[in-house]
Write a structure and sequence with these properties.
Blueprint (H helix, E strand, L loop, with lengths): L1 E6 L4 H16 L2 E8 L1 H15 L5 H15 L7 E7 L2 H11 L4 E7 L11 H9 L4 E6 L4
């Protein structure tokens, strides 16, 4: 089966990938490291491409860029993995993807935001948690002391 590690461009990605690797090793599964470029990031790429080349970026190239970001997060992974790039609303696309591949688990990251220790999920992590059709493992980054 497949475990999905949903990563962004923050330092949390390493923690998410590490946890996915532990689960994949335990279940003898493959990890799909997934990064979703948002629509605004896509628009920014389009503008830059048009400004530079006079033509828009092909959607397949945008997916490749997202997959490159996922691959960067997976550097050093010692279990079988695939880097996957998607475009759109991150939470929706991750939930759709876990359904497509019939994922065993999805691992996502969040951060601790209050000194009192109350965990507040970001909107993407919360949406994945509420809408995923498989178990969700959420890693939590600690606030600096």
């Amino acid at each position: 089966m497949v475990l999905v590690a949903a990563v962004d461009r923050t330092e949390r990605a390493a923690t998410v990938v590490d946890e996915a690797a532990r689960l994949a090793d335990a279940f003898d599964d493959e990890v799909h490291v997934v990064h979703v470029l948002t629509r605004s990031e896509f628009v920014d790429l389009e503008r830059a491409s048009v400004d530079k080349t006079g033509s828009p970026t092909e959607i397949e190239r945008v997916r490749e860029i997202a997959a490159e970001i996922a691959a960067e997060a997976a550097v050093g992974l010692d279990v079988p993995y695939d880097a996957v790039g998607l475009v759109g609303n991150p939470a929706e696309r991750v939930v759709d993807y876990i359904d497509e591949v019939d994922a065993r688990y999805v691992v996502t990251g969040s951060r601790k935001r209050s000194p009192a220790g109350k965990v507040l999920f970001g909107s993407v992590a919360q949406s994945i948690l509420l809408n995923a059709t498989c178990p969700v493992v959420t890693t939590v980054d600690q606030l600096p002391e």
